[in-house]
Amino acid sequence: MKIGISTACFYPRPLEEAIAQIAALGLRTIEIFFNTDSEFREPYVSELARLLREYGMELVSVHPFTSLMEGILLFSEYARRTEDGFDQYRRYFATAAALGAKYLTLHGERKMPGMQDNPAAVERKLERYHRLCRTAAEEGMIVAQENVAWCRSSDPAYLKLLFQNIPELRYTLDIKQAHRAGHSWREYFEVVAPRLVNVHINDFDEVHSCLLPGEGIFDYGELLGSLRDVGYNNQTLIEVYSSNYTEERQIVDAAQFLRRKARAAGYEIHA
């Protein structure tokens, strides 16, 4: 298993500064959260590639800033916007693959009060998932649907619908998002475990919904044991926000904590 981190932990610092700081903290496996369109374009992409090489980093996944708008970009009934959205995501896939990434983490549609699709809408949206996965595959990438508290993916039953109908779709499990949605992580894990490719790892307690690993009450032994039992050997990525810590030394401590817990669960830790 690899213990890594998302650049989202350092927002709103510029992406290149976040990467340099991650390297200084001794972490080499990362997910990049792209914060604006120009970060997917030249000459910035070449600069990112140079930084990743310079610091010896492995980029495993990406997260685009348009994750907030994926419902209207990719799944709506407005055909022209859908085509523009797919063109945009094809560019994301191509850029991410060129940088060495394998996965794009997807939020999908927002959760709206009273939202209920008729059968025709369900079929349309499932076909959009098929199309998105095909588009990703054409660029050498894989789509990983994340459970997100404010999205439809917060409902384990919705993820089950996707799991049953989109066999090419993969999944990112996020611990804090499960907690914020009022669910146990196990409810999502039981649905998506065979196709899980990414884990956003964090902590929480009775007051805080997002903390660095080891600073709350979450049972990492149970999680890591469950991951081991299903043969999961991909990365676990620390994903919190800059407001969730006061000193960057806390990130180093969190990574060390996760390494100890993973070894205790029977994992061999890779750089």
Compact description:
This protein is α/β, with parallel strands linked by helices.
- What sort of overall outline do the alpha carbons produce when their principal axes are compared? globular
Distance between the termini: 9 Å
Full CATH superfamily name: Divalent-metal-dependent TIM barrel enzymes
Order of strands, main sheet, comes to 1-2-3-4-5-6-7-8
Q: In terms of structural class, how would the helical and strand content be classed?
A: alpha/beta
Beta content: 15-25%
Q: What is the C-level CATH assignment?
A: Alpha Beta
Number-wise, the strands total: 8
Mean pLDDT: 97
Architecture overview:
It contains ten helices and eight strands. The protein is of the alpha/beta class and 271 residues long. The chain has helices at 15-24, 44-55, 70-74, 79-98, 119-138, 156-165, 175-180, 185-192, 220-229, 249-264, and strands at residues 2-6, 29-34, 58-64, 103-106, 142-146, 170-174, 196-201, 235-238. It has a single domain, classed as Alpha-Beta Barrel (TIM Barrel), CATH 3.20.20. Helix 5 (119-138) links the parallel strand 4 (103-106) and strand 5 (142-146). The chain has an eight-stranded parallel beta barrel with strand order 1-2-3-4-5-6-7-8, surrounded by four helices. The N and C termini lie close together (9 Å). Helix 6 (156-165) packs parallel to helix 8 (185-192) and helix 9 packs across helix 10 (249-264).
